[in-house]
Amino acid sequence: MTRPLIYAANWKMYHPPGVAAAFVTRFRELTAPREGRTLWFFPPAVSLQTVAERFADREDVKVGAQNVHWEEKGAFTGETSVAMVAGSGGSGALVGHSERRHVFGESDEETARKVRALLAAGHQAILCVGEKLEQREAGQTEEVVGRQLMAVLDGLPAHEAARLVLAYEPVWAIGTGRVAKPADAALVHAYIRTAFAAHGVAGRVPVLYGGSVNAGNVLGLVAEEQVDGVLVGGASLDAEGWAEIVGMGG
Ligand code: PGA
Description:
By secondary structure, this protein is α/β, with parallel strands linked by helices.
């Protein structure tokens, strides 16, 4: 059996429902489920139901939100609850994406609350971590990633932590065309695994790489034993291009 891999598409603020529907129609024509390969789609919240409904019969496809609020409901203008994601056909969410952290000022504490809300609802949380360029250059990658991880792991029982999926996304690689060298990514992935082991998590937590992944570099990344898949922004927006990428590796 081939090594299980996760290929995740983060559409960011692209693809309203009509465009998302056309994407899925085309993508389905080009792809078939593959053993050991899980595909995640993270459309904008308004397109979530459109995408989830059109993939309902594809067992290899999961759909989630790009962000959630930790409360079930209430006076939180502009927010989406985990229950609302579930009601739209989603079963998880990205948490702590670098744009949430650095553009919208989301704190480690807020990230941790979102992870707990997802896990409590039986959803998948894909926790994103990663350092900025100046932090990498100052040799602080492990310190930064470690702090982001500990904010979530602190107080989280090991059996709950074992249900997480991690995405290592160096901020300097996101949307810049500057991809991490596979061996460098693998070192950070190994560090993340060490932190999970130290927290008492026995199993292998999947760790994806994200940041300027495309058809030209995906094979080198997933060839690394430490890399369990990829989280892709720009190169996931086009149905043909994304269908090609999800067919590669493994
Ligand atoms: P990118 O984005 O593939 O466009 O660099 C990745 C991400 O932000 O998840």
